[in-house]
């Protein structure tokens, strides 16, 4: 019986084993199910239920119909465990029998829809066969692995990588030390650097140096404080080209420690260019490119603020072209537009760098003239503008000419707001139109009126030139030692119809910095050469020197114009023409001056440095200037008898002339004593009122015939070295003459100061000191010396009587005594002359 029951026990054990295996599968945390040979689900554990949402009761025993729980378009779980898989798994194992069991599991994975849960998951399926003792496939154990999170992570990583690589923004990732770890394609396209070139570098290799150190210090401070920064930066490409970018930097932290920096930037070159174009459209005139009304308003506000801050003036000038409508009407608007462009260019060429020209529309322009210290500075600028516009225009075959009317107001003399200032300038422009056009009018303020007066004066001088009211007078230049007339200096005079002869100092300074000085300078050259032509035709050629202003001499066409003027007078030798330029003007741009002087000298013209000694008088400059003659300024000559310093300067200038082998001439000689001292120091050439006043050209020939040098000069003409000339006597004698003149003036002038030095003390005056010391030692043995002493005492005595009578109010008696005083002075001068001649004769006898 025991043997008969043994199979039952074995069968029971098998059943129990199967149940145990099934229960074990149910307890597994890994989703596991089993298919029998018919592909029916015979085990569906709890992990499968939790993963799929499908209870075991609905799945156990099913085969095909459980697919209904799943739907397309997504693959479903049934696609992984279809009927065909049994044969497929069997074939797989047969083909890989030689492989270890651990390597022969069949696998599959895909996205599956879980309709009951309303989700989809990414599942991986692993299948292993179960065979009977005969090796037949009787079941398959399959496990499911939920790989959804990993797949989503992989998808995110691929997405991130795609975004990183395909982003239009340049991206750079650095470590905490700002060393570059990675860059994207946009970075390389924008910067020109490859990824390999920048790895391990820092973003500093892109620095343009347009941002200073403070900029980057602020950037890092913001990054450290907030973890992010954004702004506009200028960087440099590998090619060296600069470009602007919008940059965002974020610090990536883990805990309190920064692990990375991520920078994202966008090249905004096109945006900047667009902004510039839009700004140009908004702020600049489309036709001329000048600032328009919008930009003008901004610059006007800035100019007014700066003027108030620096205590300067701003001129607001409103310009309107005269008769521009005729240009449009006659030649059409296209020509008119080209004409306005040319006008704009000329205006830009006449103003300074800090000034502004704006176009309001049509033919209306506004000028802002800034940084003016005084209203007078504006005059030259407006003069240039008027002259520039007045020059003819050539547009193709069309010749055009217009003038301009300008209205001006000055801030803060006109302390109005910007709109009012423009309105005042506009009003003044209309007043300029009403006054005859082709002029400027200043808004009615006191300082502005001064400019208007100056403009009127310039206009009057211009009219004088046009109407032939100027004359040339000629002052002789002579050799005092030989008595020879060596030339004439041409001096301009204004023959005013109402005021008579107007001297040059009353009108030349007004035009010194205006274009009018060039016109007058050329007129003087023409007149002087014409007069020289007449003298030469009469058989008496005379050399003439002409003063040339610095503004005229520095004119770009000076050499060419001088050549043309000389060519108009072919009978006059250029060697007879001397140009006088001021020493200070010659030294202002010595290189340019040297070039112009040399070019003129090639024509035969000579040069003199006028007013020498009043400028720099540097030995270096004197060596570089090729002028043939130095003219000692009359301010030194006039006071040389009274001022020892002036006398020393004259002696020094003469010495310099000798060292540099230049001629020297003194101007301002007013007395014989001036000439004697100049001869004593070696200057024989002179001019001045003591020789002759300037005269009209037709009087020159007769004056030359009659001229005789002063008798004192003739006396000492043969004293080439000046050894016999008593310089202290000359100075003392001149001082005595002035002393007598002062007494006479005290009688004739009401309220004159009657305090005369050394009035009753003949030994205390300068002449008396000389007489009793150097004079006695040198001439005491001569009888003329005693005669001079007696006359000198008489002069002091009579002088004291004159002043006493004048003090008591007896003017008539004082005048009679003055006659006696003047006679004594003449006597003493004759005695002094005899004294010196006698002494010279004695010296010659020895």
Automatic annotation (TrEMBL):
Pfam families per UniProt: CZB (PF13682), EAL (PF00563), GGDEF (PF00990), PAS_4 (PF08448), PAS_9 (PF13426)
Every PAS domain range: 17-61, 156-202
Domain of life, source organism: Bacteria
InterPro entries: Biofilm_reg_signaling, Chemoreceptor_zinc-bind_dom, EAL_dom, EAL_sf, GGDEF_dom, Nucleotide_cyclase, PAC, PAS
Domain PAC: residue ranges: 107-159
Domain GGDEF: from-to ranges: 312-445
Gene Ontology MF, one: catalytic activity
Designated name of the protein: PAS domain S-box-containing protein/diguanylate cyclase (GGDEF)-like protein
């Amino acid at each position: 019986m025991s043997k008969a029951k043994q199979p039952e026990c074995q069968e029971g054990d098998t059943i129990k084993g199967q149940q145990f295996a099934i229960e074990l599968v149910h307890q597994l945390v890994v989703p596991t199910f089993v298919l029998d040979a018919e592909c029916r689900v015979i085990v569906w554990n709890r992990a499968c239920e939790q993963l799929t949402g499908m209870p075991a009761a609905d799945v156990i025993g099913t085969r095909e119909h459980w697919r209904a729980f799943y739907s397309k378009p997504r693959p479903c779980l049934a696609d992984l465990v279809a009927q065909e898989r049994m044969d497929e798994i069997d074939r797989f194992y047969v083909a890989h029998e030689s492989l270890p069991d651990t390597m022969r599991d069949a696998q599959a994975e895909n996205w599956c829809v879980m309709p009951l849960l309303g989700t989809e998951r990414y599942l991986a399926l692993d299948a292993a066969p179960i065979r009977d003792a005969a090796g037949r496939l009787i079941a398959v154990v399959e496990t499911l692995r939920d790989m959804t999170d990993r797949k989503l992570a992989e998808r995110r990583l691929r997405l991130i990588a795609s975004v990183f690589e395909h982003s239009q923004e340049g991206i750079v990732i650095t470590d905490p030390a700002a060393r570059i770890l990675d860059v994207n394609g946009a970075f390389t396209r924008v910067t020109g650097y490859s990824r390999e070139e920048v790895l391990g570098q820092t973003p500093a290799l892109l620095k343009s140096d347009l941002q200073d150190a403070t900029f980057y210090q602020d950037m890092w401070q913001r990054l450290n404080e907030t973890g992010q920064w954004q702004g506009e930066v200028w960087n440099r490409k590998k090619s060296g080209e600069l470009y602007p970018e919008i940059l965002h930097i974020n610090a990536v932290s883990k805990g309190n420690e920064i692990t990375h920096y991520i920078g994202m930037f966008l090249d905004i070159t096109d945006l900047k260019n667009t902004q510039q174009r839009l700004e140009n459209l908004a702020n600049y005139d489309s036709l001329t490119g000048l600032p328009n009304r919008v930009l003008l308003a901004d610059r006007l506000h800035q100019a007014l603020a700066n003027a108030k801050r620096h205590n300067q003036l701003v001129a607001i000038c409103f310009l309107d072209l005269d008769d521009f409508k005729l240009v449009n009407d006659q030649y059409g608007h296209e020509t008119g537009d080209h004409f306005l462009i040319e006008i704009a260019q000329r205006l830009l060429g006449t103003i300074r760098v800090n000034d502004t020209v704006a176009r309001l529309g049509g033919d209306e322009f506004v000028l802002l003239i800034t940084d003016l210290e005084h209203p007078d500075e504006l005059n030259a600028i407006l003069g240039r503008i008027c002259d520039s516009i007045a020059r003819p225009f050539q547009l193709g075959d069309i010749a055009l000419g217009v003038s301009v009317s300008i209205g001006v107001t000055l801030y803060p003399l006109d302390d109005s707001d910007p709109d009012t200032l423009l309105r005042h300038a506009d009003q003044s422009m209309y007043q300029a139109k009403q006054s005859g056009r082709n002029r400027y009018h200043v808004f009615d303020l006191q300082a502005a009126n001064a400019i208007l007066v100056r403009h009127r004066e310039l206009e009057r001088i211009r009219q004088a030139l046009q109407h032939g009211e100027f004359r040339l007078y000629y002052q002789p230049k002579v050799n005092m030692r030989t008595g020879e007339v060596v030339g004439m200096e041409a001096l301009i005079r204004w023959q005013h119809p109402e005021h008579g002869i107007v001297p040059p100092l009353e009108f030349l300074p007004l035009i010194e910095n205006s274009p009018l000085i060039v016109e007058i300078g050329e007129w003087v050259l023409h007149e002087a050469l014409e007069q020289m032509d007449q003298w030469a035709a009469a058989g008496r050629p005379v050399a003439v020197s002409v003063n040339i202003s610095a503004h005229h001499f520095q004119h770009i066409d000076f050499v060419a114009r001088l050549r043309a003027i000389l060519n108009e007078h072919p009978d006059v030798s250029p060697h007879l023409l001397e140009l006088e330029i001021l020493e200070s003007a010659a030294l202002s741009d010595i290189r340019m001056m040297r070039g112009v002087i040399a070019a003129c000298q090639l024509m035969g013209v000579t040069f003199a440095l006028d007013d020498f000694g009043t400028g720099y008088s540097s030995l270096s400059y004197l060596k570089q200037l090729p002028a043939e003659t130095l003219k000692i300024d009359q301010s030194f000559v006039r006071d040389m008898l009274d001022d020892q310093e002036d006398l020393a300067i004259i002696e020094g200038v003469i010495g310099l002339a000798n060292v540099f082998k230049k001629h020297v001439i003194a101007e301002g000689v007013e007395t014989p004593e001036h000439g004697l001292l100049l001869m004593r120091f070696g200057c024989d050439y002179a001019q001045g009122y003591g020789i002759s006043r300037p005269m009209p050209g037709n009087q020159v020939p007769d004056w030359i015939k009659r001229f005789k040098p002063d008798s004192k000069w003739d006396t000492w003409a043969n004293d080439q070295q000046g050894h016999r000339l008593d310089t202290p006597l000359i100075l003392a004698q001149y001082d005595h003459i002035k002393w007598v003149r002062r007494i006479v003036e005290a009688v004739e002038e009401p309220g004159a100061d009657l305090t005369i030095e050394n009035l009753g003390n003949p030994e205390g005056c300068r002449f008396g000191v000389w007489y009793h010391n150097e004079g006695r030692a040198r001439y005491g043995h001569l009888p003329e010396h005693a005669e001079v002493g007696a006359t000198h005492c008489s002069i002091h005595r009579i002088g004291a009587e004159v002043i006493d009578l004048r003090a008591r109010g007896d003017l008539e008696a004082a005048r009679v005594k003055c006659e006696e005083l003047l006679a004594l002075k003449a006597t003493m001068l004759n005695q002094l002359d005899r004294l010196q001649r006698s002494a010279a004769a004695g010296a010659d006898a020895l």
